[in-house]
């Protein structure tokens, strides 16, 4: 049951509801389904990711985004913020589920949180391992080992994954470069050729900048790879080949660390497969690079119980007795 406040607004997302109702005549039949779902469940955006909402409405995430723009929001995130503002985030548990995730409870003990978190990350890694097409990954590794240039694209959290992969590959002699900024990435992608490769990293596969950079690389003639959890995503559709990672939706945020661990797991596999292809030469490069930075590392402390005992020396001029 809803209640009307003195200002004439109603609790439960009325402002968003008014926007939806006002724009109903302009909506396509597909958008009407989204509208009906949201009018029946005003807090759904706080509980569902854009993909989940799209699935419930029987449409796509792109259509949900267009729906949000039609009713006056720049995107789904802004729509969620608007809904949260409308209801005043009065229910703390609803807010917790929207921001932290449904798998965790604010009253969980530290041990419960640890157990749930560990299970999430282990399941994410195992699901990724089960989905991997090893023949495809091995072929990608072979191509990387002989390519003239490798661009790696990632925005936000995926930029960290791109930088890590670039650092590892560059150390073993691969001409790899990472781009977390779209202008630089597009510039690099525009001058690639058929001997080059490009890898786009996006958990959702819907990061616009990453899609643009990978699209440009493909237009330039480079062989393109997508690393995403959705083969049917825009990024997956752009790429010549897609490698799937898994991230159970225990959190609602796309930056869930279990997704990052899945990405790093696949990237680590690729790195090792590349390294295997010329083991002798790569071992030499690794040794040389390790030696180059060795003076910048402090020596390790001796293990406990292994410290040398310094014997007292006789004072100069004194007589020692046998």
From TrEMBL:
Ranges for domain HTH rpiR-type:
14-90
Sequence segments annotated as region (Disordered): 291-322
Biased composition, class Polar residues, residue ranges: 309-322
Q: Which residues form a coiled coil?
A: none
| Segments of skewed composition (Basic residues) | 298-307
Q: What GO terms are given for molecular function?
A: carbohydrate derivative binding; DNA binding; DNA-binding transcription factor activity
Q: Which residues form the SIS domain?
A: 140-280
User: Is this entry keyworded Isomerase?
Assistant: no
| Residues that span the membrane, as ranges | none
Report any Pfam family annotated for this entry. SIS
Transmembrane as a keyword of this entry, yes or no, is no
The alphabetical list of record keywords is: DNA-binding, Transcription, Transcription regulation
Q: Which InterPro entries match?
A: Homeodomain-like_sf, HTH_RpiR, RpiR-like, RpiR-like_SIS, SIS_dom, SIS_dom_sf, WH-like_DNA-bd_sf
Task: Kindly list the biological process annotations in GO that this record carries.
Answer: carbohydrate derivative metabolic process
State the name under which the record lists this protein.
Transcriptional regulator, RpiR family
